[in-house]
Amino acid sequence: TLKMTPQAYGQGIRQAGLSASQEIQAAFQEAIGEVQGERKKLAHIIGQSRHQDRQNWWLLGVGLACLVVGIGLSPVMAYLLPSSVGTRVASFIVGEKDRWNSGAMMMAVSNPEGWQRVREDSQLVEANRDRIAACQKAASGQEKSQKSCVITVPAEQE
To answer: What highest taxon heads this organism's lineage (predicted)?
Structure first.
């Protein structure tokens, strides 16, 4: 090393500097490549997120369209199917335990006074069922004409 000239020392320093510079440049290029790779991955993730967001909007739109079509078609389908299906659907919607009670509830809501008369008339007929049956039998035996019959009417309760 004592035999080296100043030019040789300068050349050695220059070579060491170039070598270090090339190592730094290679590391920098590698870092740039990694950053670009990560940027591409992020762009892909963002693209997927946008695509998924678009799919969510499509699902919401299709769901709402199906709901509207279902609501629009259900009365038509109930009309086209046999009547027992329509009354079962109505009973389900009303929420009573059977179709009889559903119908009674709908009549009571639609016309409370009329429904009260139906109930009172039904109770009157039920209380006099035997007498009415006997009277009908007697009327059918007498040349099928009308016959007067006596029934029991309870006092009005308040």
So the answer is: Bacteria
Structure tokens at 117: 């008369």
Cβ pair 55, 62 in contact under 8 A: no
- Residue 91: how many other CB atoms lie within 10 Å: 19
Helix/strand/coil for 157 = coil
Q: Which two tokens stand for residue 76?
A: 């038509």
Give the Å distances, CA to CA, from 39 to 44, 45, 93: 9, 10, 56
CA dist 2 and 7 (Å) reads 13
pLDDT band at 145 (very low <50, low <70, confident <90, very high): confident
- CA angle at residue 136 from 133 to 137, to 5 degrees? 85
Q: pTM, whole model, 2 decimals?
A: 0.45
Distance from C-alpha of 151 to C-alpha of 49, rounded to nearest angstrom: 81
Query: Which single residue is written with the structure tokens 């950053």?
Result: 35
